[in-house]
Amino acid sequence: MIRAIGVLILALSLPDVIHGVVYLFYRVTSAETFLGGTLISVISLRGPLIGCALGLYLFFGGKWVVNLCIPSNRPYCPECGYDLSKATSANCPECGVKLPRDSSTG
Q1: Concatenated DSSP letters of 7-34
Q2: Same domain, yes or no: 25 and 66
Q3: What DSSP character marks residue 57?
């Protein structure tokens, strides 16, 4: 689902980026170019470029966003519910229960 959202954001942002780059290239290569118009063209690319970056981030995993939105995606102690994402030992740092092998590697 996260990848689908990334593809959607990328598909909505990419045409604006392409249009902005083509327009900017036209402004720079034309004889009537002036600094103000070129600067405004560069600034107007900010939003679509951020959208493309966000879309690519979500498409290629978006681990931070997934862990923020789905807290149960992180490993928790089955006994006390302690977050084990930074645990280094085979025991829970909170209650000391021995952890199953797959939940201690997060």
Answers
A1: HHHHHHHHHHHHHHHHHHHHHHHSTT--
A2: yes
A3: H
CA distance 37 to 58: 33
Q: What is the pLDDT of residues 20-43, one digit of tens each?
A: 888 888 777 766 655 556 777 778
Cα–Cα distance between 89 and 106 in angstroms, integer?
12
100: tokens are 């199953």
b/e per residue 60-84 (b: at least 16 CB within 10 A):
eebeeeeeeeeeeeebbbeeeebeb
Whole-Å CA distances, 68 to 1, 8, 43: 15, 20, 31
Q: Find the domain containing 99 and state its range.
A: 74-106
Question: Does the reported pTM lie above 0.90?
Answer: no
Q: Tell me: do 11 and 39 sit in the same domain.
A: yes
- Tally the C-alpha atoms within 13 A of residue 67's C-alpha that lie toward its C-beta: 11
How far apart (Å, rounded) are the C-alpha atoms in residues 66 and 28?
A: 41
User: Quick one: 82 and 64 in the same domain?
Assistant: no
